[in-house]
Amino acid sequence: MSRPDRYAVVGNPIHHSLSPRIHTLFAEQTGQAMTYEARRGTPGQFAEEVGGWLAGELRGVNVTVPFKEDACQLAAVLSDRARRAGAANTLWTGDDGRIHGDNTDGVGLLRDLEDRLGCDLNGRRILILGAGGATRGILLPLLERTPAELIVANRTPARAEGLARDFADLAGDTRLQACALDALPDGPFDLILNATAAGLSEDALELPAGLVGPRTTAYDLVYGPAALRFLDWAEAAGCALSSDGLGMLVEQAAEAFAIWRGVHPETGPVLATLRHEAAD
Ligand code: NAP
């Protein structure tokens, strides 16, 4: 009998990762013979380490903080969305023997926002807090929905300005702008995305309630306890809908799984299982 194909997620730190659980549930659901483990990567040695795994025992690798840019550089063949993001979260060895890279974060977010939460982004006002790798990964699919306005606000404004410049050619009819986190424009916004890592630190985001109107959706890309401060703010400010990023995590994983295995798992039951397990 042939041995199951092996996959892994690499990050540093990595002990908190839910990816092994998610992919194990996908594999059970779809009857795929595979294993999936978490591996701690060594900063500065990504290409040697992960290149070696892909040349050897692993069929594919998911990549998380802080290695997504290294993954983009390692891939010999990149999808358009990974090239635009300058970051890859999914690697695999193609039939041509070369390392391929894709970025499924953006499509994962959009699936969660549109399919689960019912958001329609066309013609809307969107505010993104943060201008790091995650924002770079979600800008392309957000702009493809042609919002009326998309503002990137960051603690370090130059980073937001750089992103607005880099994606200006894709803005089309959308007013794409950058600002400082402490100089936010007037609301209300239809969608406020928290793509900062502030929830993971001691510093809370100071956000004016005026950003929120009666139909505002607030979404934190982070999930679990780290999302609570932002979600509490959203509720107190009167957002119509709010969510953490667990759905995005499951959706981006499902896209990676589909690339590797050629079958798209059902995400709803897996998200429900994770929510149930988190509540235990
Ligand atoms: P990153 O590249 O390190 O960027 C971090 C961002 O957070 C920067 O804009 C940074 O601002 C800002 N920031 C950090 N601490 C802050 C604070 N105390 N106050 C205000 N801003 C602060 O990280 P990333 O890759 O973009 O990831 C951002 C978050 O998204 C992470 O927590 C990650 O786990 C999450 N994420 C979730 C998913 C999912 O599937 N749910 C996918 C991707 C990412 P400066 O530029 O000023 O430093």
From TrEMBL:
Shikimate binds at residues 17-19, 64, 89, 105, 223, 252. Residues 118-197 form the Quinate/shikimate 5-dehydrogenase/glutamyl-tRNA reductase domain. It catalyses: shikimate + NADP(+) = 3-dehydroshikimate + NADPH + H(+). Pathway: Metabolic intermediate biosynthesis; chorismate biosynthesis; chorismate from D-erythrose 4-phosphate and phosphoenolpyruvate: step 4/7. InterPro entries: Aminoacid_DH-like_N_sf, NAD(P)-bd_dom_sf, SDH_C, Shikimate_DH, Shikimate_DH-bd_N, Shikimate_DH_fam, Shikm_DH/Glu-tRNA_Rdtase. One of its GO terms (cellular component) is cytosol. One of its GO terms (molecular function) is shikimate 3-dehydrogenase (NADP+) activity. This is Shikimate dehydrogenase (NADP(+)). It comes from Thioalkalivibrio halophilus.
